[in-house]
Amino acid sequence: MSVTKPNSFMQAGTRGKSRRGRTPSIDMQKIENAVREVGAKMDDISMKDVADYLGVNVTTLYRHVGGIDGLRRIRASLSRSDLADLPAPHGHTWQSWLKVLAEYYRSALLQHPDLLDFVQAALDPDFLNLEQEASILVNFGFEPRAALLAHSFLITTITGYVQQELQTIEEARNGYAPYYSRLFQNLDAHPDRLPTLSKVNLSQRDLDRDVNFKSIIHYAIAGIACQKGAPKDPDKVL
């Protein structure tokens, strides 16, 4: 009894169907590369754009990253490669070093707004920066817990300021007067309606984002200095 073998046309058709039906394999390295390539071409990023780049469906991508927040976290983490090293403490007091550190983080967040959604989770996923910063503060005389709390307070302050700063930039770009610009207009038009604010004698310098940031950080550092576990020798230089 002879067995009929499929002809070459049937074999080719079967192989082709098998290839088309197989889900392409992806891993985190491929996803990171796709996020890097797709993200370089647009301000925002979508599951569909990345899935199309990888040649998979959105459901397959979802199983790997858990949704759009997972992609944004990856994109934010990739931004770390552009960041400079943490500023060295040499020649600084702890106060002056925290001011430099604050400018470092502010610059990073302004350059990479994606980082704002995740901040430390994207900036320092392995906690190595946190360890380095805490060690520096301890060398300045902080108790370890106080060093950790000081870092947390500083990052929270910077994040809040930059969020407002980016909103102000966006409003100005869209032709909408930012909040404090509108305050000036109200003070000029109705000084009697805002008597306390009229006594401040606000000027255009008060709209300078750099000047305001320095003032905010000054207040933050003054608050840190009053906390339990802060250095007893505030003028120590490393």
UniProtKB/TrEMBL annotation:
Keywords: Transcription, Transcription regulation. One of its GO terms (biological process) is negative regulation of DNA-templated transcription. Residues 1-11 have a biased composition (Polar residues). It comes from the Bacteria. Residues 1-28 are annotated as: Disordered. The keyword Metal-binding does not apply. Pfam families: TetR_C_1. Residues 87-225 form the Tetracycline repressor TetR C-terminal domain. This is Tetracycline repressor TetR C-terminal domain-containing protein.
